[in-house]
Every structure is written in structure tokens, then in C-alpha cells.
Amino acid sequence: MTLEEVPLPDYCVFILRFLVFAAVHSLFATTGVKGAVARLCHGEPRGYRLAYNLSSLVLFGWVMAAFRSSPVLYFAPGVWSLVMYLGQLVCAVILVDCLRRTGAGDFLGISQFGAGRAESPRLVTDGYYAMVRHPLYLFSTAFLLLNPVMTAQWLLLTCLAAAYFVVGGLIEERRLLKEFGDEYRRYRHRTPFIIPAVRVRRPHSP
Fold first, then answer.
1. Which residues on adjacent β-strands are paired with residue 13?
2. How far is CA 142 from CA 12, 86, 165, in A?
3. Do the Cβ atoms of 105 and 135 come closer than 8 Å?
4. For the chain, which residues make up each domain, given as ranges?
5. How confident is the model at residue 83 (pLDDT cuts 50, 70, 90)?
6. Helix, strand or coil for residue 121?
7. According to a count of CB atoms within 10 Å of the terminal CB, is the N or C end of the chain lower?
8. Contact predicate 128/135, CB 8 Å
9. Chain centroid to CA 201
10. Residue 200: pLDDT band by 50, 70, 90 thresholds?
């Protein structure tokens, strides 16, 4: 067997596929690509967001199809697995609430098919958005970490996703600064990025 015929290890294939997913997912979310599509179609197609989500879902399935036979690193025994599943359920409920506050229809790409005038964008700073600027990324990472059966594939996914969330959050903030200006600068100044701040109350001196 020559060097060219040596197959890549499964974890390398998984990482490469994830990088392809991250690049494509980020590229088609940029205003430049959206603008190019809008110019070709004489206006942004109503189904752009929905098609973007569906294609991302298919591409993510392609990523997860790699390294399926990865070893189990640990599993939470007995009641601890139930506790971790409960934690995942709490994270899922919080994620749904965050989407509701920012507009689940817009996120999923469904509202673009509705009739009527679209509402002007609003900066959401209440609820979990008062805790951190990117609660979707925070609780998605927590959901991944709370999986009671941790395989090598899932651990790789968690690490890669956490890094991608940080990069994606920084890119998203550039768009939000252009869209909301000083309002977002004030919000960014008082609200942590992804990790919640721990505020310690100092006792008043007598």
C-alpha cells in the first residue's frame, strides 16, 4: 500500500467534514452572499432562510455520519444519567425561549412566506439575553456537555462546536454593530459575551 492509499483516520475525516460544514454555514450567512443572491434574483428569495436551514441540516447529518464507531469515553451511571438528561431538557427549553424572544419564525425561515409588512428589527436584551449576549451558543454547548454517554465523536463535536460558536459570535457581533450601532455598543459593554459573569457582593463597611 502506497502513502497515497493510506486512509485518513476516522476522527480526521470527522474534523474535516465539520470544517467544511462550518465554512459553508458561515459563508451563506454573510451579507455578501445574501446580497449576491438578491442581485441575481432581483430581491432576496423568500425561501432563502428556509433553504439555508435545510441544507445546513443535511450537511450536518453528513458530518455526523463520520466516526460513527468511535469509542465510549464514559457514561453517567444510574441516577446521574437522569440528572444529565434533565439538564439537557432544561437547556432545550431555554433555547426555545431564546428563539421565541428573537423570532422563531425568522430563525426557521417560515415568517418570510407570510403576507404583510415585516416588522423592523429589534435588539433583544431581556430574558437570557440579559445574562449573556449569545445565550443560544451558551446553552447549546451546555446541552452537548450534558450528554450522559460521551463518545469520542461527541467530545470532538462539543469541542469543535464550542470553538465555532466563539468565532460565529464574533462575526455576528460585527453585523449587529452595523445594524444597531450605539445601542448594541451599550449592550455589549454591560453584558458578557458567552460566559456569564459572577458578581460578588461585597459587604458594606460599617
1. none
2. 24, 12, 12
3. no
4. 3-190
5. very high
6. coil
7. C
8. yes
9. 32
10. very low
The set of cell numbers assigned to 145 is: 456537555
Which is nearest to 130 in space by CA: 200, 186, 182, 202?
Answer: 186
Q: Note the pTM of the prediction, 2 decimals.
A: 0.85
Q: For the residues 36-56, what does the mean pLDDT come to?
A: 83
> Strand, helix or coil at 124?
coil
User: What does the buried/exposed string (b/e) look like for 113-150 if buried means 16 or more CB atoms within 10 Å of the residue's CB?
Assistant: eeeeeeeeeeeeeeebbeebbbbbbbbbbebbbbbbeb
- The x, y and z cell numbers of residue 142, run together, are 451546555
Give the DSSP per-residue string, 9-70: PHHHHHHHHHHHHHHHHHHTTSHHHHHHHHHHTTS--TTHHHHHHHHHHHHHHHHHTTTTTP
Q: How far apart, in whole angstroms, are the C-alpha atoms of residue 14 and residue 19?
A: 9
Give the pLDDT confidence score for residue 5 in this predicted structure: 62
- The mean pLDDT of the chain is 87
83 vs 90, 98, 138, 146, 155, CA distance in Å? 11, 23, 19, 9, 19
Secondary structure (3-state) at 196:
coil
Mention every residue, 6+ apart, whose C-beta is less than 8 A from residue 27.
Answer: 33
| SS3 label, residue 149 | strand
